């Protein structure tokens, strides 16, 4: 269920192949930030991440004639990026286990959630109201946003990658599965755990 | 009738509209009656929308000069 390429993507490819600088700059500007955030979930150093993104753009330019529109241009670019980021992470001795769903950290999360319910499944520690309950009012509270950012950065890597694409970048589930080459169920489990953790981090600052 | 714990477990599937309709209906019924689960799901949605703000406020628009050069170079080949 990937976003299929539209005629616009093919048109854009042809513009780029014809050397349209404005089109290239607009394309890079539209994705650069997201690409950098994505790679940062695989490699920890910012300069290395920048390098991977720039190498990817060179690979994109090189491979552009072969882009046939079977997926969207965005998905195609991010698949190249994901491959490079993975290779780089492996070289740095980091492997991101997208398929491994049961880490000790996750068991701790499950245990923590389990404590909040009675044996019958009703809340025993219900979530309290928050001091601020609109995005605008929370955005003004630096402490809350800092906590959210910090919690995002310390998520288990696969969860961080998925929630970054889904929630920070606003991608669809299908796009995420396609780029990361993971199944839908896996994607949802990772997203669910990530959101559960991040909500809890905000709760730590915002609960009355 | 779903328990609160089940509602919390299904929250992401529900938000993504991935639940088959009987389960979706059960979620709606539960949420109509349970203010606490409603609050929990609202807080999850709030978390998601704050994450989205992180994405839209961080973006930079200038592109590295080396990329611009690479593109120019490529298109004159």
Q: In words, what does this structure look like?
A:
The complex is a heterodimer of chains A (208) and B (77). Chain A has two domains: 7-91, RNA polymerase sigma factor, region 2, helix turn helix motif (Rna Polymerase Sigma Factor, Chain: A), CATH 1.10.1740; 104-206, Winged helix-like DNA-binding domain superfamily/Winged helix DNA-binding domain (Arc Repressor Mutant, subunit A, Orthogonal Bundle), CATH 1.10.10. Helices cover 67% and strands 0% of the residues of chain A. Chain A has ten helices and no strands. Chain B is mainly alpha-helical and 77 residues long. Chain B has one domain (4-76). Chain B has helices at residues 4-9, 11-15, 21-33, 35-58, 65-76. At the A-B interface, helix 2, helix 3, helix 6, helix 7 and helix 8 of A face helix 1, helix 2, helix 4 and helix 5 of B.
Primary descriptors:
heterodimer, A: 208 residues, mainly alpha, Rna Polymerase Sigma Factor, Chain: A, Arc Repressor Mutant, subunit A, 2 domains, 10 helices, elongated, B: 77 residues, 5 helices, 0% strand
What is the compact description of this entry?
The complex is a heterodimer of chains A (208) and B (77). Chain A is built from 10 helices and no strands. By secondary structure, chain A is mostly helical.
What share of residues are in beta strands of chain B?
A: under 5%
Counted beta strands of chain A: 0
What is the CA-CA span between the terminal residues of chain B? 67 Å
Oligomer: heterodimer
Query: How far apart, in Å, are the first and last alpha carbons of chain A?
Result: 41 Å
What is the helix tally of chain B?
A: 5
* Count of spatially separate domains of chain A: 2
Element pattern of chain B in H and E: HHHHH
Helix content of chain A: 55-70%
Overall spatial form of chain A: elongated
By secondary-structure content and strand pairing, the structural class of chain B works out as: mainly alpha
> Could you estimate the helical fraction of the residues of chain B in percent?
over 70%
Give the overall average pLDDT of chain A: 91
pLDDT average of chain B, as an integer? 89
